[in-house]
Amino acid sequence: MEFGNFLRILKKHRFTLILVPIFAVIITYFLVHNQPDVYSSQAKLATGIVDQTQQILGNESDPQESKVNQQFSNLIEILKSKRMLDQVSYKLIIHDLSSDKPYRKPSALLNQLNASARQHALDTYTSLYKKRQALSLFNADQNGLHKLLASMKYDDQSLLKTLLVYRVQTSDYINVQFDSEGAELSAMVVNTLCAEFVNYYTLLVKENQRKAVDFLSRLLKAKEDTLNAKMLALKQYKVKNHVLNLNEKAKSLYGQMADFETRREEVERNTHATQSAINDIDKKFDPTDRQYAEGSRIADAQKVLSTRTQLQAATDAYVQSNFDPRYKHRMDSLNGVISAQLGNLSDRYILNPLSTKKDLVDEKLTLQVQNELAKNSTGAINKELNRLNTKFDALVPHEAATQALESAITIASQEYLEILQKYNQASMVSNFSTQLRIIETAEPGTAQPSKKMLLVIISGAVSFVFCIAVLFILFFFDNSIKNAHELANRTKVPVLGYINQLKNKKIDLGAIWSNNKANGETRYLRDLIQSLRYEIETEMGENQVLLVNSIEKEAGKSFVAINLAYAYASVNKKVLVIDGNFDDPGITRFTQTSYYLEDLLPNVLDKSFVTIENKIRVIGNKGGGYSLLEIGGEQIVTDKIAALKTMFDVIIIEASALNTLNRSKEWVQFSDNILTVFEAGNNINEEYKTHIQYLKQQQGKFIGWVINLVRPENEEKS
């Protein structure tokens, strides 16, 4: 497929490409020239979704773009919903039913209504408008009212055809546009739709806000009651268990316990220190010296022990009174007495003068007193620590209970504050008016520029392009072979020539091959046959027998064979034409010959057949669907062909089509060369490919194609 071929197809169908757009333009003109003018009206709505000047305090954050787009989509869909359009439809039909100047010319159905029917329709439409209800098509009466709306083109589907609702780029505004044949009608539809939408949306928003405030109010009251109940439970628990301030009380007890722990550690440290010192002194005493010293001081030591017992009692009282200063004074006094008594012991000369350990004995007695005091203090401190631990442990259950109650109160308080905040926000928002409002109302507009001429031009252009598209599709999917060039490319076999298609189906061969009568296309046909004859003669060389066949019948074999015979005769060749097509003996019928293969093959050739001076001889057949070898054996046919070669310069045999199988192929073994006729316009299908492969396998006998019935527009590529 080449572009040049497509251009030739366009040239061939040039009248179609001209006439079809003309008819389309004419038809379009008559369809649109009576159409009324179009009036367009627009209104603009502000939504407040992205306009910061309309935002309520505390709600100034920028919303996400996806959420904004979703909100605008919801508003646009509500505007275009059947609920809104039904309100507009009711207003339009109510006006036309009750006014002498309707927006549109009354339809046939409206004119059929009598006075009572018109009043019933008016009352029903008015009631539905006030109640914002839709017509029920299941109700016979309301179904008829819907048909009345449709007849006036006031129904929702008719309004949607010319209604345009869109967001103005990325702004806060929505445009509503309606086109109709009346300026007032367009403005009325837009203004009514916008007003009904604003009223409906406002009512919807306020109703939702009221429900939200009521719900939050009930929820806030419930949370407040819960909080009060938990606070009361905490109060009752503290009163019942005499709990004043657990944290402060626990801190006080913990401080006292820490103080006693410190004192106990100090006393234990003193006890270990004095005991270690006493042990060291004991190691330095001789047993006899120790006995003497202790025997001399028994009386004074007993006084020291008595005073020490009193000091212990004072120490216990001092610890148990939480270190009352009064007991501290008594302890200091007793310590002074003990010191004096120990001094008296040291003043006595009761030791052996030879002894050098007097000071050690005195120091030991002092350390023993201190050790006893420390041990007595440890017991008192441990007793007091046990008492404080008992009091501290008694605080733990109260602390756990109060913490649980206080935690519950904290949670309830947070819930209450959150609900309170939402309630205040909802109450504040409900007191504001809705942000949706009409900022530009629609006015009756002027007539829009007429699109009639544009439609006429578009119809012509579209029909022209459509015709070209159809022709291109036909050309693109057309795999038929139209000329010699395409046949040679598709089969890889040379094409020796072509025969043009004649306008007149009836031709006179005598006129074609008579030099003084041939003209125009018949002269051109003769030239093509002569060219074909030359190519065949060149390919055949010294060979004499040419078999002319085809793949399918009615491809023009007979026509080619007869004309080739005339072409050879015109160059003074003696030509024999054999009609070997037993299925359709067309040459026999055309020439009306009296010589038949059925007679000549079994018998000796008639001398009269050879002596005739005519340069073209014809041997026909009687038909009947026989094959060559059924009439005569292979040797007989071979001998007859050999004899005929001696009598004629060229023998042209027309065989039946190759799809007749053996009836055509039997002639191949008796021929020198094969010329196959291909009819232009045929496709090479699988059957063709099989027969072409057979021809290529005939050991060089197949010399090529001749393509028949080539149209004049395809001859350039031949």
Automatic annotation (TrEMBL):
Decide whether keyword Cytoplasm is in the record.
no
Matching Pfam families, A to Z? Wzz
The portions of this protein that span the membrane are 15-32, 453-477
Q: Which UniProt keywords apply?
A: Cell membrane, Membrane, Transmembrane, Transmembrane helix
Q: Which domain of life is it from?
A: Bacteria
Occurrences of domain Polysaccharide chain length determinant N-terminal (ranges)? 3-92
Under Gene3D superfamilies, the record lists: P-loop containing nucleotide triphosphate hydrolases
Q: Where in the cell is it found?
A: Cell membrane
Keyword Membrane attached: yes
Topology in the lipid bilayer is annotated as:
Multi-pass membrane protein
Stated name of the protein: Exopolysaccharide transport family protein
State the organism's lineage.
Answer: Bacteria, Pseudomonadati, Bacteroidota, Sphingobacteriia, Sphingobacteriales
